[in-house]
Design brief:
alpha+beta, eight-stranded mixed sheet, six-stranded mixed sheet
Length: 633
C-alpha cells in the first residue's frame, strides 16, 4: 500500500520573492543544547551562496576546525574547502583570530570552554549529488561541503538549523536527519548523534514534488525536483515500492530494516545520471526523459536504467553503508581511504540491482539478460582487464576510476562491471554445487559482522562455511588475477547460452570516439586496428581515401559506407594542426580466426579465451533453469 501525493510543481517564473534581496524570516530557533550547532541560510540565491554559522559550546583552547576533502561513496579528493570563504570567529563580544594551517584546516585563537561562533559562506554551484547547489529554484547540500568538523568533538551531538529566508518562503525541505523543531515546510532544527551522521544526511530544498509509501511497514518519501507535468508519479512510486520491499525481504525476510524511515531525493535535469548512497536516504540525478510518462504503457529503456539506479543506491543502504570495508570503520575525511574491496561493495551491488528488478517483476527475463549482456560486453571490450586485477582497481579508484583519461580502457578495469561478473560467477557456481547461494552468503555476512565492518577473509570464511569447501582459488583467480571468467560454462548450466556476435565498427577498429559534426578519437584500444594504423587519442578523423577517391566522413559509419567491400584505405587525420595520411587495413585475419574459435567455445560451454570475442549475446535456452537462478520460479 502506498499513499501518493500527486502534487506536481511546474517550474516557476522568476518572481518578486525570488528577486528580492536576502531577508531573514525569523530569529534563530531554539533547540536542545548541543555541543556543536550549525545554522545554514540560503542567503544569496543568484550568487549561489549559503551562509553558515557554527556555534561550539565548549571549544578547546586553540580549537581546530576542518572541512572534509572527500565524501564517502565518491572516491576522489574534491577539495571542498575551495568553495569556503570569509571565515571569521567571535568569542563573546570580541573577534578572534583564525589561522589557516593547510588547505582545509584552521586554528582559532580562542579560550577553552567559552562558546565560540564561526561564520563563513560557501559557494554552491555543483549540480551533482556530491557537493552543493543553490540557485533561484533549488538548493541542495551534503554536510561535507558546508559543515566544518570541530576536531576532537566529532563524536558529540550535532544540531543544524535550516533557515528560511524571504527568497525561500515557498520552498520545502527534505532530509533524512531527525527533526527537532521544524515548521510545516520542513525548515527548522534537526539533530544528529555525531558528525558522521550529520554529513551522511543530504538536504534538498525547493518547490519539489513529493510522494509517500510504506515498504514492509517503513515510511518512505520520494521527492523529485525539475520534473515535467507529464511525469507519471504514481508509476514511479509503485515501482520504487516494489524495489524497496524486494530489497528489505532479501536482507531480512519478515524481519525489520535497520532504519526507521527513508528519503529518495531525485534531481531531474536536461541530461545527467548518477546517485550517492547514504544511511537512510539517497541523492539521485537523472535526465527528465528518464522519468516515466503518463500514458506510456511500456517502460522505456531509459526508465529501466533509472529503476536500476534506484535499486543500486537502495541496496547500498546495507552493502557499504552498514556492511562495509574494515578500512571504512572510521572515516578519515582528511585524506584518501584505501580499500581493495570496492569490487565487492560496488560490484556485488551492481549484480543485485538489476537482479532485484527481475525479482520484483519490473522487468522480464529477456530484459534482464539484455542488461547482463551489456555488462559482460563492457568488461570484454576493456583491454585493461588483462592489465589490472579488480582488487587493484578498487585500491586505485582514487587515481584511476575517478580520474579517467584516454588510456583508461587500456590500463584499468571497472570494479563495478568486473565486480558484478565476479558476483555472477560466485552465485552460479554456488547454485551449481547445490549447497548454498550468494543470497545466503550475503545474509550470513550481515549476521557475522552484525551489519558492520568486514574484510575479505570474512567473505572467504562464510563461503567455506556454507558451501562446504574453500573458494580461495576462485577469489585468487577472479579477484586477484586477470584470467578470463568462466562465464559461458556457468551460464550454460543455468539455462543461458552465450554466443559470439559481430562487434560494432568502433570496437572492430579498436576505438572510442565522439561524433558531433565529425569523428573525434577519445581512446585507441590496445592491440586494435587503429593502434596499428598509428591513430592516437585527440585525433580528428576527417575522411578516407579509397581507390584514389577521397571522401569526407561525419560519423564512423561513413567509413564502411564509402569503403564498401574494400579493405585497404587511407585515413585522413588532423593532429596538432597537421594533416596526416595513415594506412588502414580493415580485414584482420587474427580477429577472424579468433571469432571462429569463440563461436566453437561458447557453443560448447567453455570459458572465453583471452581476446576470443569482445562482443557476445545471451540467449535463454532453458527457461526453467533460468527462473531458478533469477528467483522467479
Amino acid at each position: 500500500m502506498f499513499d501518493a501525493c500527486a502534487t506536481c510543481f511546474a517550474p516557476r517564473r522568476a518572481s518578486t520573492i525570488a528577486n528580492a534581496p536576502y531577508k531573514p524570516m525569523s530569529k534563530p530557533r531554539s533547540a536542545p543544547a548541543a555541543d556543536v550547532h550549525f545554522r545554514i541560510e540560503p542567503t544569496d540565491l543568484r550568487a549561489h551562496f549559503f551562509s553558515v554559522t557554527l556555534t561550539v559550546s565548549h571549544p578547546t583552547a586553540g580549537q581546530e576546525v576542518a572541512l572534509p576533502v572527500w565524501i564517502p561513496g565518491s572516491y576522489l579528493i574534491r577539495e571542498f574547502a575551495k568553495n569556503l570563504q570569509q571565515l571569521k570567529a567571535r568569542q563573546g563580544k570580541h573577534d578572534t583570530a583564525v589561522v589557516q594551517l593547510d588547505k582545509h584546516r584552521w586554528r582559532v585563537d580562542c579560550t577553552a570552554d567559552k562558546p565560540l561562533e564561526l561564520t563563513y559562506t560557501v559557494c554552491a554551484y555543483d549540480n551533482s549529488v556530491r557537493t552543493a547547489w543553490l540557485d533561484t529554484s533549488r538548493g541542495f547540500f551534503n554536510g561535507t561541503s558546508l559543515c566544518l568538523q570541530v576536531l576532537g568533538q566529532e563524536k558529540n551531538r550535532h544540531t543544524v538549523e535550516i533557515a528560511c529566508t524571504s527568497a525561500t518562503a515557498q520552498w520545502s525541505v527534505a532530509t533524512g536527519l531527525q527533526s527537532v523543531s521544524i515548521d510545516k515546510n520542513g525548515f527548522g532544527v534537526y539533530a544528529a548523534a555525531d558528525y558522521d551522521e550529520l554529513v551522511d544526511c543530504p538536504v534538498e530544498m525547493g518547490s519539489f514534488w513529493v510522494g509517500r509509501f510504506k515498504a514492509c511497514g517503513i515510511p518512505h518519501r520520494f521527492v523529485v525536483a525539475g520534473a515535467l507535468p507529464s511525469f507519471d508519479s504514481k508509476r514511479l512510486l509503485a515501482d520504487t515500492q516494489k524495489i524497496c520491499e524486494t530489497a528489505i525481504r532479501f536482507w531480512h525476510g519478515e524481519g525489520k530494516a535497520p532504519f526507521r524511515s527513508y528519503v529518495f531525493m531525485l534531481n531531474a535535469v536536461g541530461d545527467g545520471y548518477g546517485g550517492l548512497e547514504h544511511r537512510n536516504s539517497t541523492a539521485l540525478i537523472c535526465g527528465r526523459r528518464d522519468l516515466p510518462r503518463q500514458g506510456d504503457a511500456k517502460a522505456s529503456d531509459r526508465y529501466i536504467t533509472l529503476l536500476g539506479l534506484i535499486s543500486h543506491e537502495y541496496f547500498h543502504t546495507w552493502n557499504v553503508k552498514r556492511l562495509r570495508p574494515a578500512e571504512f570503520a572510521i572515516y578519515d575525511y582528511t585524506r584518501e581511504n584505501y580499500t581493495e574491496l570496492l569490487w565487492f561493495f560496488e560490484g556485488f551491488t551492481s549484480y543485485y540491482d538489476d537482479l532485484l528488478l527481475r525479482r520484483a517483476d519490473l522487468i522480464d527475463d529477456a530484459a534482464y539478460l539484455k542488461l547482463l549482456t551489456k555488462t559482460i560486453n563492457q568488461v570484454l571490450q576493456t583491454p585493461g582487464r588483462a592489465v589490472q586485477t579488480v582488487a587493484q582497481a578498487s585500491f586505485d579508484a582514487w587515481v584511476k576510476y575517478y580520474r579517467q583519461d584516454e588510456n583508461t580502457p587500456n590500463a584499468t578495469v571497472s570494479y563495478y562491471t568486473k565486480g558484478c561478473l565476479v558476483a555472477l560467477c560466485l552465485d552460479l557456481t554456488l547454485r551449481s554445487e547445490g549447497k548454498t547461494t550468494l543470497d545466503e552468503v550475503m545474509r550470513a555476512l550481515w549476521a557475522r559482522t552484525n551489519g558492520g565492518p568486514m574484510a575479505e577473509a570474512d567473505l572467504c570464511n562464510v563461503l567455506e562455511q556454507l558451501a562446504g569447501r574453500s573458494f580461495n582459488p576462485e577469489i585468487a583467480q577472479w579477484v586477484h588475477g586477470t584470467d578470463e571468467l568462466p562465464l559461458a560454462s556457468l551460464l550454460a548450466t543455468h539455462g543461458v547460452t552465450l554466443q559470439a556476435q559481430s562487434p560494432q565498427l568502433a570496437q572492430r577498429l579498436g576505438l572510442r570516439v565522439t561524433e558531433n559534426h565529425g569523428v573525434q578519437i577519445k581512446s585507441v584500444l590496445r592491440g586494435g586496428i587503429a593502434e596499428r594504423s598509428g591513430m592516437a587519442p585527440g585525433d580528428e578523423w576527417l575522411g578516407i581515401d579509397v581507390q584514389k577517391q577521397g571522401w569526407r566522413i561525419n560519423k564512423l559509419d561513413d567509413v564502411m559506407f564509402y569503403a564498401g567491400t574494400e579493405t585497404i584505405l587511407e585515413a585522413l587525420i588532423a593532429r596538432d594542426g597537421r594533416l596526416l595520411r595513415l594506412p588502414v587495413t580493415l580485414t584482420d585475419q587474427a580477429t577472424k580466426a579468433s571469432s571462429k574459435n569463440a563461436s566453437k567455445n561458447t557453443r560448447s560451454g567453455a570459458k572465453l579465451p583471452r581476446q576470443a570475442s569482445d562482443t557476445i549475446g545471451l540467449i535463454a535456452s532453458a527457461p526453467a533453469q533460468l527462473a531458478g537462478w533469477l528467483g522467479c520460479s
